[in-house]
Amino acid sequence: MRLNRKDILGIEDLSVEELETILSTAESFKEVSTREIKKVPTLRGKTIINLFYEASTRTRTSFEIAAKRMSADAVNISVSTSSVVKGETLKDTAKNLEAMKPDCIVIRHSSSGAPHGIAGYVGCSVINAGDGNHEHPSQALLDMLTVREHKKSLAGLKLAIIGDVKHSRVARSNIYGFTKLGASVVVCGPATMLPPGIEALGCKATVNVEDALRDADVVMMLRIQLERSKGADFPNAREYSRLYGLDDVKLRKAKKDVLILHPGPMNRGVEISAEVADGPYSLILDQVTNGVAVRMALFYLLLGTSREDAPKAI
Amino acid sequence: MELTIIRGGTLVDPATGTNGLYNVYISGERIASIRPFESDTIDPSPGLTIIEAKGRFVLPGLIDVHTHLREPGYEYKETIQSGAMAGAAGGFTTVLCMANTKPVNDCEAVTRQIIEKAGKAVVNVLPIGALSHGMKGERLTEMHELKSAGCVAISDDGMPVANAGLMRTALEYAGGVNLTVISHAETPELASNGVMNEGAVSTRMGLAGIPNAAEDAMAARDIQLAELTGARLHVAHVSTAGAVALIRSAKGRGAKNITAEATPHHLTLDHEAVGGYNTNAKMNPPLRSMKDVQALRAGIADGTIDCIATDHAPHSTIEKDVEFDKAANGVIGLETAFSLIYGLVLQGAFELDKAIAAMTINPAMAFGLAKGTLRVGSIADITIVNPSRTWTVSPATLKSKSKNTPFIGKELKAVVEKTIVNGKIVYDNPE
Amino acid sequence: MKVRQVMDAKSIDRAVARIAHEILERNKGAEGVIILGIPTRGYHLALRLQACIASIEGVSVPVGAVDATLYRDDLGIKKDQPSLKRMEIPIAVDGSVVVMVDDVLFTGRTIRAAIDALMDFGRPHSIQLAVLVDRGHRQLPIKADYVGKNLPTSLKEGVKVHLVEVDGVSEAVVEPCD
């Protein structure tokens, strides 16, 4: 068992087999975080750099904890403290970091495709921790893991993703992931938030929230970026909330045992009501717990074996 | 007098309807005689040079009405000299260079500076003046002065003229001084922060898209204004099926003052070429869908699109080796243009004569240049191409200072073997 | 060289029964004993030992699994990553006598890793090692306390234990290495 790849850049290019491998490995890693001593020596001596060009508490912390629980050394670089402010290009930054011989660079960047650029510049592994509006593979993997724990399998499930799909890397990664594992996915939001050709990713799209929620097994609410309401994507938070905000009434359309996901951070009262967020089917905190396990699994699968180019031990 | 004979090549000159085997006699800088190969006997005489052209196309020197030579101001990307060398290597004997230099070519002084440098370049370099001062879209340039200094057209290319009133005034005024206005047809509010074609590919890649409507709406406006004013309008780098249809219908209404161009890259690639976040496939207008590509080809085939122009836009790795959304727009095109277009001819996209016309006589007519055809007595600007040779696009051999092309590594048909400007060989690439 | 059977189902049963007796004898009963198998087959041997001890003493000792994978020293060398197995420590190990069970004892590296893994869960009073087959060639100073069969082998040979619970047949075989 291994992932025969250097980088994790997106769910789009992962096979079903690879997804299953990552998820089952992550399941095993959950146990480590329940121990008194939450640390295994597996990646001792490995160096992981978290290179974050965008603010993120949850994802960065999750990657950092995952690295540390595997005994790897984790170094965090965030945009405000790095030389980016001095005008260094992404390529120069990547090359300079590579010269310090890390084993893996985890990158979060506001430009779609930035991790692909880095992966081309450096020889070490690269994990995409979210790029622009493109992909956020570790988030989708933890979402899949969370749902799989409750529903055994994703095959045949209906997932409704509601919100600003256009600007959501979480939506794109989950569309790929859930459909690859046999679920059907419907995305829903105001027409301004449904990008053209989204169906080509393998999902259905609708502006009607009741259609999206009808018989849904899983509902994933996307964070609404309130600053976008200043543009023309939607008139204001009140109208958005009335039409697309998830509350107990709308949720009755879904299946009785529906599961609620949210990638966080939530705008309570806008895209999700407090009752739903704190309700019995909300898995929002499970998602966070599973995030660490998924990221440990990714580190293990990428860094735990020798690569073809590595010197052979005798 | 020195005499050079280009012997036995296939002379293709759409302006005269010629397509056959001829010997072309060059005396000094002019064409002395054009004789059918079959019936011609060449008397050996001292000072006679013979260029053997059997199996080659002998063409009127190619004309590119849309290049960015970056001088003055961005000499690290390209200079007039290096751009002219790239043009010569691509078979172009005349190139028009856009005004978005630093400073912008919006006054006589800058034009004169360009003309002076152009005098030392290996091909004819003719400047295009800006439409508005600083290309800011606010105040008209002194078009008469620009023309006297040597500008052959007017354009704010790179920046759309957002203000319809200004565009109307520009067309009226330019018409009065007999200059063609080139429109960069893009509605800024619709293009917004887009970095590629809007569609399934931009959605998949998570990149902001530019809808076809951004071009269609502005092309429609400018066509209306051209019809209103009667001035000569040239629509640059048409990329959408909608714009092709708008131009076709204007021409169908009898609008003789409207011409248009398409680039070799828009004619050959669709938006899938952006895959992998390839910044060398990022340009404005963006690569569109295959449906648009097909419409552009049909536009060349039926004459709706008059010209093939490269929009040669050199950028260094400083602008291109960065995140996709931060990368500069534009690709170089002078050296690959003929081969790409010939490849389309071989695929049956359009006839060879149509393609040659779009690179010779049509651009000459659109901008009132006394070029683009080979007649006895005319200046000897000639391009000789070997259609059976192939070459591989490689940064090491490109003459342009910049290497930003999506065709790196591609093997292409047809090699420009000789470029002759004013009777002199300025580029020679024998087999 | 072909595959050669060195233990059949009967002899495995006898060996397990004898080890169960030895464990009880050495620890003066089953008090404070925990049996932890190394997955996959070590865990099933642990279950068999539990059953034997139950039939001899009438008590059920706790059984669990200790997966050494994350503690291995060859992860950076192997091309193929071992998949993670069960880690199941049924009760606190502090102060107890842990009998670790594996099917084949070879270099000792797996046992070293398993001891390290176990130590992360607590501080047992002592750790004893039971193996069905000891084939020699130790690379670490590790010795089994209970051995089903000592089997001198060549490094050109491999030793495999099959158990009916996992493989449909119970036997130990020696086979040529690839």
Provide a quick synopsis of the model:
The complex is a heterotrimer of chains A (about 325), B (about 425) and C (about 180). Helices cover about 30% and strands about 25% of the residues of chain B. Chain B is an alpha/beta fold.
- H/E element string of chain C? EHEHEEHEEEHE
The helix content of chain C, as a percent range, equals: 25-40%
Instruction: Name the overall outline of chain A.
Output: globular
* Spatial arrangement of strands, main beta sheet of chain A: 7-6-5-8-9
Rg of Cα set of chain C: 16 Å
Oligomer: heterotrimer
Enumerate the spans of chain A where pLDDT stays under 50 for 5 or more consecutive residues: 309-314
Q: Which structural class best describes the helix and strand composition of chain C?
A: alpha/beta
Count of DSSP H/I helices of chain C? 4
> What is the overall number of helices of chain A?
11
**Class from secondary-structure proportions of chain A:** alpha/beta
Gross geometry of chain C: globular
Structure, described:
Chain A has 314 residues and is α/β, with parallel strands linked by helices. Helix content of chain A is 36%, strand content 14%. In chain A, α3 crosses α4 and α5 (137-151) packs across α6 (169-180). The longest helix of chain A is centred in the last third of the chain and has 20 residues, at 284-303. Chain A is globular and about 55 Å long. Chain A starts with 15 loop residues before the first helix and ends in an 11-residue tail after the last helix. Chain B is an alpha/beta fold. Chain B has two domains: 3-58 and 376-390 and 412-428, Urease, subunit C, domain 1; 61-366, Alpha-Beta Barrel (TIM Barrel), CATH 3.20.20.140. In chain B, 29% of the residues lie in helices and 23% in strands. Chain B is built from 14 helices and 18 strands. In chain B, α6 (200-205) links the parallel β11 (196-197) and β12. Chain B is globular, with a radius of gyration of 21 Å. The mean pLDDT of chain B is 97. Chain C has 178 residues and is of the alpha/beta class. Chain C has a single domain, classed as Rossmann fold (3-Layer(aba) Sandwich), CATH 3.40.50. In chain C, the strands form two sheets. Chain C has a five-stranded parallel beta sheet with strand order 3-2-4-5-6, sandwiched between helices. Chain C has a three-stranded antiparallel beta sheet with strand order 1-8-7. In chain C, α2 links the parallel β2 and β3. The longest helix of chain C is centred in the N-terminal third of the chain and has 18 residues, at 9-26. Chain C starts with a strand and ends with a strand. The relative contact order of chain C is 0.21. The model of chain C has no long low-confidence stretch (mean pLDDT 93).
